[in-house]
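Bench log. Compound arrived from synthesis this morning; before running ITC I wanted a structural hypothesis for how pyridoxal-5'-phosphate sits in the protein. Inputs:
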Amino acid sequence: MSNKNLENKGFSTHCIHAGQKANESRSHITPIYASSTYLMDDAQYGVDLFTGKRDAYVYGRFGNPNTNEVEDKIAALETYGLKNTAGEPLQAKAILHASGMAAISTCLLASLTSGNKILTHFSLYGGTQELLDKVLPALNIEATHCDFKQLDEVEKQLASDKTIQLVYIETPANPSLACVDIEAICALAKKYGIIVMCDNTFATPYLQQPFAFGVDYIIHSTTKFLNGHGTAIGGVLLGTDLDMMNTKMTKHHRLLGGNGNAFDAFLLNTGIKTLALRMDKHCSNAEQVAHFLEQHKAVEKVNYLGLASHEDYALAKKQMKHAGAMLSFEVKGGTDNYRYENAKLFINHLKLSTHAVSLGTVDTLISHPASTTHAGVTPEIKEQSGISDGLIRMSVGLENVEDIIDDLENALNHCNI
Ligand SMILES: Cc1ncc(COP(=O)(O)O)c(C=O)c1O
């Protein structure tokens, strides 16, 4: 996994060193391998490669030294400090993808077949929701939603519908910050022999390790906190069933063609080196921003897992190291009680924060989910996911927190209350 012995070393040390291997040039940082294919010594070499007798780089779509380094690094972080049932260090394999959506697609398509169903909850990332609504039904794969807080209801669904083959969770979820009790859902799914897939994008492995609670597959949009600087789209799929990862998942990854590339992997690898440092500051800034918002007269409600008012405050404490850097809040309605008007006034008066979709970058990002990321989601699902016209989503950045708060205060003071 690494040239260095990282046994008993800390999480940050893994962020920096895990995955790095020696290279022939002896360069300190792994160079960017801008090569689409790899040389074969002789005819037998090719035979050995394609029959699996030799493990070496073959073709860029299958992987290269940069994608491999970052895959091993993320696998080390998602299994950091965890043990398998035999008490040995847990092993996972990671496969880098061109985007979070590509990683989700590989995992779903490799795990499911026509006639299978997915059981999931409300408040998923809009793209994931659209994949379930608009792409998979054409393959005769349907998704059923239910309230994952009602464990009896989840069990009823799993027990009564044998076509459910996969439980899909995103926690904390986008943009309500609602959490799913990962341990409880995994216990139910295991009882019925069903696999669980978890989107861990918002938390990152620094704040939450879903494998610790029995999840089978983890995906991340690495575009977000893992990269941290907004320089590359990417995704990763991880699993602890190494046979499945090395066979079916690898095959689907290669044949669907959603592979990551060397340059983006290089950027991602560099970003992850400061993950722990960044997350600590993101989290402490977010906490202060949430307290500020909570007391502002133009704000109706703040969804932040670190506030005791959030319904998942206790659950987040149980399964996450910290409440994280994501929050959302509702602006109040103006004189005509039309919240969208105030949401627009707020956004249009921001002077420091970046108005853009995406999240997890060093700068504060602010977006209006109802008109952007979740514009393609049905009104019913929007309502059930708590996405109102007045909801603003914030990814709290690393600027001086007083500057972020000043910016918010100025913009909120322009709302008509
Ligand atoms: C929680 C979550 N999961 C998955 C995705 C999809 O990732 P990507 O845009 O890298 O395909 C996103 C994108 O915003 C997201 O927020």
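What the model suggests: The chain has two domains: 11-31+63-272, 276-412. The domain at 11-31+63-272 is CATH 3.40.640.10 (Aspartate Aminotransferase; domain 2).
ITC booked for Thursday regardless.
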